[in-house]
Amino acid sequence: xxxxxxxxxxxxxxxxxxxxxxxxxxxxxxxxxxxxxxxxxxxxxxxxxxxxxxxxxxxxxxxxxxxxxxxxxxxxxxxxxxxxxxxxxxxxxxxxxxxxxxxxxxxxxxxxxxxxxxxxxxxxxxxxxxxxxxxxxxxxxxxxxxxxxxxxxxxxxxxxxxxxxxxxxxxxxxxxxxxxxxxxxxxxxxxxxxxxxxxxxxxxxxxxxxxxxxxxxxxxxxxxxxxxxxxxxxxxxxxxxxxxxxxxxxxxxxxxxxxxxxxxxxxxxxxxxxxxxxxxxxxxxxxxxxxxxxxxxxxxxxxxxxxxxxxxxxxxxxxxxxxxxxxxxxxxxxxxxxxxxxxxxxxxxxxxxxxxxxxxxxxxxxxxxxxxxxxxxxxxxxxxxxxxxxxxxxxxxxxxxxxxxxxxxx
Length: 410
Hints:
Number of domains: 2
Oligomer: single chain
Number of strands: 12
Order of helices and strands: EHHEHEHEHEHHEHEEHHHEEHEHHEH
Helix content: 40-55%
Largest sheet: 7 strands, mixed
Mean pLDDT: 94
CATH class of the largest domain: Alpha Beta
CATH architecture of the largest domain: 3-Layer(aba) Sandwich
Distance between the termini: 31 Å
CATH topology of the largest domain: Aspartate Aminotransferase, domain 2
Radius of gyration: 23 Å
Strand order of the largest sheet: 2-8-7-6-5-3-4
Shape: globular
């Protein structure tokens, strides 16, 4: 029996998604930028997908920018806003951005790059449960703050961030600043007050939550197709109208001149269908099923394996995540041993799981480096079965016992 428990890394493509994509690899092969019939047939598929995303996010279709995935979306959101603000005359040294210590590298690395060029970055610490402290966030806001980028759900431990609350705080500050500016006499006003823009990477949230951008009060939102039973190599960035954004990839006039490059029509069509299926299904029923299986896994591990530490706080995490540290055993050894038994798990974010460094997320949560190295992430999906969970609970304890006997740590 092959068991896949690495759904945060990627999800199997839904058969219905593949079905709607196939015509765009053959009969509907046209370039959507072409004005002839072949191009227009492809464009119709792109437009339909854009409509699906706009309904799901509760935004206008022209506020959706298609990309190659969430990494590109994150880069476009951060670099694009900075580039646009520079065009408005604000120097990098006059810009301040707030993020958190547990963000994906697709956010952290572009910000580190900007910091090296003179920008000021505040990286918020998180509590032991992996959640940003709202009070510390409030204190971090400054007069020169131009952007906040906080993920919706952490990919490693599954912690849900208070995105709506953060968005509301930013909205209230922006409204207050504008109101005070209007009260001033015209001669004293000067330029309009600086606005704070809010970006969230919702890649791990889309499967579980209705990401209504109006409810979240966000200006930019990133998502990816392959995390929601859609295709790899395609994603999207929601950009609220009037949000300053300049392209970071040049060479064409696609996507409202914000993202150059011939559109990946089959991928975009697949993303639209994956979103449509999410919109249609009963999230509550599916989430309850996954929670039940996740709890069965957690309880089985805690009962049968001594010195197993659950790093996921089930009260504030997605239904899918169960992140453990097994004291005295390297996570990579557990991963390989399980893989040899046909069970797929990970040691952290798939984009960094080949690294031997301790997870920056776990370290930010206050977990010691040696314990962080003992970690394994289980992430369940809509196709996970009770029989699979029982098999994992049966196979894992003897593996941990054997590895501990071999380990110099234990």
